[in-house]
Structures are given as structure tokens and as C-alpha cells.
Amino acid sequence: MGNSQNQNHWFKHLKGIKILLTLLFFLFSFSRSMACTVFVLTDGKKTYFFNNEDFTNTKTRIWFVPKGKGHFGCAYVGFDDGEAQGGLNTKGLAFDWVTVDGDSYIVDPNYVPDKKLIKLNKNTSQWMLERCKTVKEAINFYQTYSEPAFARTTLFIADKSGNSVVIGSKNGKLYFDTTSKSRGSGYGETTFQKLHKTQNVPTISEGSEILRQCAVAGSGGTKYSNSYNLHTGEIEFYNFANPRENTKFSLSDELKKGAHYYETSKITAQINQSVMPLTLNMNRHILTMYQPLKNQEHKITAKIQYLFSEVASGKLKYDDLSDSFTNDLKKSEENIKAIYGRFGNLKSLELIYKAKVQDSTDYSYIMKFENVSILWQFLFNDQHKIYDFNTLSIVWK
Asked: End-to-end distance of the chain based on CA atoms, in angstroms?
């Protein structure tokens, strides 16, 4: 696993300033254990795509975005940060990011995207999936658009014809490793080579058994296992501890329900319940394609702007913070100032969402700094003071 903004995992659900500091530290110098397995089984007539997603975060999701003007309908899989780790579209194209620690073929610190490549904000693989129908088109996409993450991870893409490509970098240059045969990548590649019988007609049962044997236990182990039938759009999630809880459903049927999501650990129950609307950070390209609210709540906005101006000046007064939030801030004040300096000056902030949450109010803003754009949720108590916040999405320029 991995994604075009791997470091964004450290910003998933922040509770308090101490956690923010810890996660920001990992943003700039992180090391973690990753052992994902991705493979495709094909004979040209049938093509199945399989994935074990391995990471520390247990809050896993699948979400559905129906087609619209200029984009295909898609299902994305990932975590609660709204960053797609993998996905499938209605044209039978699927992808997943694959990273394995210590693999010199993957870690290529010398890779810098060619200046001729066009920059896209946020996760390029989501742009790719909603625009491309085939591996050939996906390759052309990455020959056109910049993806800095190829310095540290690879992207596995397959289409319903059985064609697949692994995209990464080596010796500072992009490579496109293509084939029309079954293949595996990531942690379980050796196991895949051992178990896959090339003379057999590909089947879901063969692939799910390979996935089972490649699953990793422990806190950094496999968080979900799934497959896609690239011809029919059928999606299946596996519970290897209890196969009766395997869940199978159709991409087309889910897209008819409109935009929604499931928690992958609870799909069996949630698929038969009322659909859950997308969380704010699951919306398409939320940091660039958003609509500010007409009522910008100028008093609330001024409090947030004032807080950041205080941080920038180094003269925090804590007037608009709850007591507990103030205590957290005071303990780490110097570190916060240093980290904030990496953001650059605040250029703009726009309120894009407001909702009542029990005894508090959620105000979510797109905040654009010189070096970064952030979707931040601020929670105000009934005294109109900030008592908590969550970083919902972030992209560095």
C-alpha cells in the first residue's frame, strides 16, 4: 500500500496539539512498516484484481462516487483520511499503491518529476481512475502528469483485458513495467509466484487463497482484503477468520445508491442499512473543487484567523480556546511555532461546511498557506470557544 501523498496518513484524526506535533514530525521524517500485497489473475478472458491493505490505521473505508460530467463512476478503498489507496471504475480499470520497506527498486530518492509534467493537486491516482479506461490510457496519464510519490512507492494498474502496469522510478527515471500475464507485487510477491498455477483458468477462489496466505498479523498488518472482477464490476471483501462474513456486491448497484461509504470492517451489516453520505474529505478533490458557504460566519472566521496570526507572531493569548485546549497548546507552544513556520503565510481561509454536533458546532475550513493547503475542522463549544480540531485533508505544494 501507499499513495500519492503517503505522508498524509499522519494527519488522519488529530486530537489535541501533542498529537499534531507527533504527526507533523513524521510528515517530515517518517518510517513505517508496510507489507501490502497486490496481484492480478488473468487469461485475457477473465481478469481479477486482488489486494491486501496493510497499515496501522484500523479505520478502513470503501466509498462510491457516481459518474458526472467528465468523470467515470468509481469505488475507492482506503482509510478515514479520504485518500484512495486503491479503486475500481465502471470501465474495468483498477489500481492500488504498493510499497515495501527496504526495497531499493522502490525507494528512489533521486527521482524528481520532469518539469514538463503537469502538476495536479492531491491524489493523482483518483484523477487517473475517473478519467482512464485502459492501462494504455493510464500510462499516457502518468506520462503527462507529475507524481512525486514515485520516489518512494509504486502504482499497480490493471484493466479488464488483462493488461497491467507497475509504475515507479529507478535511477531517477520513471519506468512502466507492462505485461498481459498474471503477476504479483509487494510483500506477497514470492508467495504469489509459489502458489499461482499458470496453467489454470483464473478464479476468485484461487486468488482469495493466495491473499489469505499473504495476510499479515499484528498492529501494522492486513486491515482489509478485497478483490475486483474487472469484467463484471463485482467487488468482494474477505474475512479469513470467518468466511461466512465475506461480502460481495456490485459496483453498478452501489453507484445507483448515490455517493456513500461503508466501513470495511462493518460492510456485512452496513450494506443492508441506510446509506451513509460521504464524509467531507471523501468528496472529489475537496481541496481544489469545493464551494464556499455563502454565509462565511465572519465572527467565527475572525477567531480562527486571529488564532493563526497569534501563532505566527509568537504572542498567543488563548482568548478563543477552551481551558483544556489552552493547556495542550501551552505545553507545546515553541514546537508549534516552529512547525507552523513550515506552512508559510496564511493566504486564505474559506468556510465550506457547518453542522451542529451535539453540544458543539463543526466549522470546516479550507485554509491555504504558502506551502500547504489544509481542510481543517474546528469544533466550538456552546461558549463559542475552540475545544478541538481535526485535520481532514492536506496537500503540500
From this structure: 23
Amino acid (1-letter code) at residue 195: L
Between these two residues, 54 and 121, which has the higher pLDDT value? 54
Q: Is the pLDDT of residue 211 over 50?
A: yes
Q: Between these two residues, 276 and 329, which has the higher pLDDT value?
A: 276
- Going along the chain from its start, the domains and CATH numbers come out as 6-13+32-282 (3.60.60.10), 298-396 (3.10.450.50)
* Residues, the chain: 397
What lies within 8 Å, CB to CB, of 243 at 6+ separation is none
Q: What integer pLDDT is reported at residue 31 of this predicted model?
A: 33
User: For residue 19, how many C-alpha atoms fall within 13 Å in the half-sphere facing its CB?
Assistant: 13
Of the candidates 198, 235, 266, 206, the residue with the CA atom closest to the CA atom of residue 60: 266
State the pTM of this model: 0.88
What pLDDT shows up at residue 101? 57
For residue 288 the three cell numbers come to 481544489
Burial level of 377, CB count in 10 A (0-12/13-18/19+)? buried
Partners of 348 in the β-ladder:
368
Mapped onto helix, strand or coil, the DSSP state of residue 284 is: coil
Over its C-alpha atoms, the chain yields an Rg (Å, rounded) of 22
How many angstroms separate the CA atoms of 117 and 111, rounded?
13
State how far the alpha carbon of 209 is from the alpha carbons of 19, 204, 378, in Å.
39, 9, 45
Burial class (CB in 10 A: 0-12, 13-18, 19+), 36: buried
Over residues 137-160, the pLDDT tens digits come to 999 999 999 999 999 899 999 999
